[in-house]
Design brief:
7% strand, 20 helices, globular, alpha/beta, single chain, 57% helix
Length: 542
């Protein structure tokens, strides 16, 4: 219970908890905090062994996401490492395998050593498909060091596909560059929001004016964080709903001097309209229940097409914003559309047709579109050849006692695999093309394409963002609260990993009761719909 619901270890020493247990069973002897910690470490070791066994038995490749986090209450750096794979039943799985304390300095070599040690301890180094990382020079240097430490023969195309850049982070960089162009265009809206949320009295006056104007107050004003574009988008989206309220308050409040002009509201509406596509894609990329890799490529293409359309919208500020964003987009375009293009080809609904459709719209030059399609096809053929050679080698090992004449020649085997790929690409899809199409179920039953089935199982498991690792930091932040800032890093790792493993195990047993598998809820009074003030009296955890 302490692990699953993030209760403090000292809970067993609280007077109220002890009295509650005594009311249930007066003879029950409550254990000490030290005993609880010892039990947590035993649970961690037991669950770790089970999780290692699951990953060891899994025959598919494993994709890794990782990120660094500094605990504000400890001033210590932690690395979260999450493994993603498709299991034997063709279910998408993810497991936190380490939440490890990393002493300073956090150089590329230090991070590389920690990550490689983890991969080897968990026997993932020879099953690794991709590493999804944030975009920074340290991670770029770390990838080069990792490639020197791992066996390139076990990696896809000798490691050329190992580095997967976090698309959610790329989108953030793109939009932030565009928002810089806007500058003072929305400053009065930001100042207005800041003014009316500054004190409880002003909030009450704002709500009262909204009610008088019959404007719904279900959405509250919220001030943005300038470094997070989606918070600016949400601030503008809410503020636009209260445009008439701001105008009315300008006449009633003499201290309110920053009321936006009509042209500023027009700019805000244009920005919200344009950023809607970025917001929806970011939500898709940042979902904790991340989708299969085939869904990403069309979304990235839609963004690029939108940016090209904005260049000709006739509004100078939007055109300047689009130009800046497109420049940043081009910097990362070729680094993210390779393996995602392969995942798109493996979508039986569309295959190469989707590539032809999008590239013909993105590239005005037909030759450029043709080169891009050929580049992704080359990756497909190279992967197919690599898998077919490994498959043939395992067949030879399994039938070592058979006569050599009974085995197919390398040329025959390769030709057979290539022809099956060509048949798959050329075949028509017979089924529904609705958004809820279950691509994993389709490939689970695609027995006539055995080699492509292996590739699909590995490629579709690749996460396009580091959100799986970053979501662990939210949990870590709750574990290392101001009251628990002295938790030892080994205890924190045991709590973090055990919680993830236990919840995943519970979900697999009863997937229908998913709403119960939430560790943290805000308390809400059903009658007043107001948050209850949290008055915890926890002591520091040692």
């Amino acid at each position: 219970m302490i692990v699953l619901h993030e209760y403090p270890l000292s809970m067993v020493e609280h007077f109220g908890f002890r009295r509650f247990l005594s009311s249930l069973q007066p003879l029950f002897k409550v254990v000490s905090r030290n005993t609880v910690k010892s039990d947590i470490m035993k649970i961690y070791e037991f669950e770790k062994t089970k999780t290692m066994r699951i990953i060891e038995k899994n025959t598919s490749k494993i994709a890794i996401t990782t990120n660094m986090w500094t605990a504000s209450n400890q001033k210590k750096g932690y690395m979260a490492i999450t493994a993603h794979f498709i299991d034997e039943t063709w279910k998408l799985r993810s497991r936190i395998i380490r939440f490890i304390y990393v002493p300073c300095p956090h150089t590329a070599k230090v991070l590389c050593d920690v990550l490689v040690d983890c991969l080897m301890d968990w026997f993932i180094d020879r099953k690794l498909s991709t590493l999804t990382l944030d975009n920074c020079t340290t991670n770029d240097a770390m990838i080069n060091l990792i490639l020197n430490k791992l066996d390139n023969q076990s990696l896809w195309l000798e490691g050329s596909l190992l580095h997967m850049r976090c698309c959610a982070h790329i989108l953030n960089l793109i939009v932030r560059d565009g928002m810089d162009v806007i500058g003072d265009g929305i400053e009065n809206i930001r100042s207005s929001v800041a003014f009316w949320v500054a004190t409880p009295k002003r909030c009450e006056k704002f709500d009262e004016t909204a009610r008088l104007l019959k404007v719904s107050t279900s959405r509250k004003l919220v001030l943005d964080c300038k470094t997070r574009w989606n918070s600016t988008y949400k601030m503008l989206k809410v503020a636009i709903c209260y445009k008439d309220v701001f105008t009315r308050l300008k006449q009633r409040e003499p201290l309110y001097k920053s009321a936006p002009k009509e042209e500023e509201w027009e700019i805000a509406r244009d920005i919200c309209d344009k950023l809607k596509v970025f917001n929806s894609v970011t939500e898709l990329f940042s979902g904790t229940e991340y989708p299969t890799a085939n869904l990403y490529f069309p979304k990235i293409c839609e963004i690029k097409m939108s940016l090209k359309e904005w260049l000709c919208c006739g509004k100078s500020i939007i055109e300047r914003m689009a130009m800046r964003m497109l420049d940043k987009f081009e910097k990362y375009w070729f680094q993210i559309n390779g393996i995602m293009g392969v995942a798109t080809v493996l979508d039986p609904r569309y295959k190469l047709r989707l590539l032809h459709y999008y590239f013909s719209l993105i590239y005005t030059n037909g030759e450029d579109a043709k080169k891009e399609i050929e580049r992704i096809q080359d990756i497909c053929y190279n992967l197919l050849n690599e898998y077919s050679l490994k498959s043939k080698a395992s067949e030879v090992g399994a039938s070592y006692q058979s006569s050599a004449s009974s085995l197919p020649s390398p040329d025959e085997s390769e030709t057979d695999h290539m022809s099956k790929y060509d048949k798959f690409v050329a075949s028509d899809f017979k089924g529904n093309r609705l958004p809820d199409f279950d691509i994993l179920s389709w490939w689970k039953n695609a027995l006539k394409y055995p080699t492509l089935q292996l590739i699909a199982r590995d490629v579709l498991a690749i996460p396009i963002s580091t959100v799986a690792s970053e979501s662990a930091f939210s949990t870590g932040g709750r574990f290392i609260s101001p009251h628990r800032s002295r938790l030892h890093h080994d205890t924190l790792e045991a709590l973090m990993c055990s919680q993830d493993w236990l919840w995943n195990e519970a979900k697999e047993i009863d997937a229908t009761n998913s709403e119960c598998y939430t560790t943290f809820h805000d308390d809400v009074d059903d009658e007043t719909n107001e948050d209850i003030l949290d008055t915890d009296t926890y002591h520091d955890e040692l």
